Amino acid sequence: MPAVAWGVGAALLANTLYSVGFVLEKRALTRLPEVSVRRPAHLLRQVVTSPLWLAGSIALASGFGAQLAVYRTLPIAAAQGIFVSGLVLLLLLSARLLGERTSGRERYAIAAILAALLMVVLSLQGNEENADAVGQSSPAPLILLVCVPSLAAGLSLYASAERRARHRHRLPTTGVEYGVAVGLLYGVSSLAIKGVSGVLPDVPALFASPYPYLLLCTGAFGLVMSQAALQRCRASLIVPVCTTVTCLFTAVLGTLAFGESLPHEPVPLALRVTGTALAVAVLLLMPKHDAPQEPAREPRELLPHEP
Question: Which ranges in the chain belong to alpha helices (H)?
Answer without folding.
Answer: 2-30, 40-47, 51-73, 76-84, 86-93, 104-123, 140-165, 176-199, 203-208, 211-232, 235-249, 255-257, 266-285
